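Q: Sequence in, structure out?
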Amino acid sequence: MIRRDESEVTWLIHQAAHAYVSGQIAQHWVGDGSLRIFPREEVLIAAFAHDNGWFGAEERPTINRYGQPATFTEWALEEHLTIWRASIALVFAQNRYAALLASLHCSALYDQRLRYVDDLPAQKAHIHEFLDERRAWEAGLIAALKPHARYGLAVQPEHLAHNLRLLQVWDYLSLLLCMGSVFEQTLEDVPLSEHNRAILRLAASGPRSLALDPFPLDAPLAIWIDARQVVGAPFASTEILRARLNDTAYRPLMFEVEPLGAEGERPAQNMR
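A: Exactly. Output:
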């Protein structure tokens, strides 16, 4: 669950809806115009489906210590690991190569966590065990796919690294849109073609818009999802939050991805 706090309203967005945004970005990603994604359909499955394991847990939302609906970064480590296993298994049931990318994406995230987050020793040990489990699974799947007529080339290290980096970029851009106002920044190592990685400049072009330079999509993009507006926070208990959400209808929410203006200027603010 993603909690998106705006000036006058708070939205709750399903992780699968965030993955849908990621998949929409992926579907229109052309890089510098010469980018070739192979195997395209399977890489897109990973973008669209890598967070599908969240839905069961999201049926049991909780509050944080401030009485706000807990966003995904506030969930416990053990819950995250369980959800990742479920997500990867669901992708695996659809396509093995897509599941390999989802698992590699997961492993990379926890490698980053070990480097940058000061977890307790017991949590770090648990993450190391989880990463050992994932890497053994990934190695076994790579070995199984090497003789595959379609995936043999795609599991070679350079191709896996290329496709994994695409998935990471799409996931990050989607999170920026879903989580709240975008701040101006740069994103490094972005694949624009098979051999060309560039620095991508990011800025807000509106309260729910993201502007990019160089622009890597085939056209400006509007992405619709459904989400719930939360009324009544802070909540005194998880039970009250759940009861409120049961009575809350989904509403449309739209995000936009567009080019940065000429010479790097932001487009005029597009308030909605």
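The chain has one domain: 2-264.
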